[in-house]
Amino acid sequence: MENCVFCKIIAGEIPSAKVYEDGEIVIFKDINPLAKVHLLCVPKEHYKTVAELNAAREAVLGRALKTIGTLAPTLGLGDGFRLVVNQGETAGQTVPHLHIHILGGEPLKWE
Ligand code: 5GP
Ligand code: ZN
């Protein structure tokens, strides 16, 4: 998708600090971390919200969650972490390519 920053990261056109990649997803450090550890797990396919899910995308997201759980101890997230998926501009989504924020590495407040 033209002009999508995450598509450009996936294509290697914009550098990122990748911590994991497979054929379906990439996980890299958020450029503006809101916690000690702040990663973004991004499916390689471009779509904006869960309203656009289909069976294949659901399966990718399911495997993405499993991968996050498996990798968590090696990413400094072993004591607990938070997953956030902003949906739409009203909720604060600024990049229109579905992504899972992974926040942790320190105690997190819920306010
Ligand atoms: P959203 O606000 O859409 O839920 O989250 C988008 C996230 O992408 C933000 O936390 C923002 O800091 C991050 N971000 C935006 N542009 C870049 C970039 O070029 N590189 C990286 N690593 N993160 C980015
Ligand atoms: Zn995209």
What small molecules does this complex bind?
A: guanosine-5'-monophosphate, zinc ion
Number of helices: 2
* CA-atom Rg in angstroms: 13 Å
Instruction: Kindly estimate the percentage of residues that lie in beta strands according to DSSP.
Output: 15-25%
Return the CATH architecture: 2-Layer Sandwich
Give the class-level CATH name: Alpha Beta
How many strand units?
Answer: 5
CATH topology: HIT family, subunit A
- Helix/sheet category: alpha+beta
Q: Globular, elongated, flat, extended or rod-shaped: what is the shape?
A: globular
> CATH homologous superfamily?
HIT-like
Overall tally of domains: 1
Query: How are the strands of the largest sheet arranged?
Result: 1-2-3-5-4
Considering DSSP H and I runs of 4 or more, what fraction of the residues is helical? 10-25%
- End-to-end separation in angstroms reads 35 Å
Taking the sheet with the most strands, its summary is: 5 strands, antiparallel
Mean pLDDT: 97
- Enumerate the spans where pLDDT stays under 50 for 5 or more consecutive residues: none
- Report the order of strands and helices: HEEEHEE
Please characterize this protein's 3D structure.
This protein has 111 residues and is an alpha+beta fold. It has a single domain (5-104), classed as HIT family, subunit A (2-Layer Sandwich). Helices cover 21% and strands 23% of the residues. The chain is built from two helices and five strands, in the order αβββαββ. Strands 1-2-3-5-4 form a five-stranded antiparallel β-sheet, with helices on one face. The longest helix is centred in the middle third of the chain and has 17 residues, at 55-71. It starts with a helix and ends in a 7-residue tail after the last strand. Bound molecules: guanosine-5'-monophosphate and zinc ion.
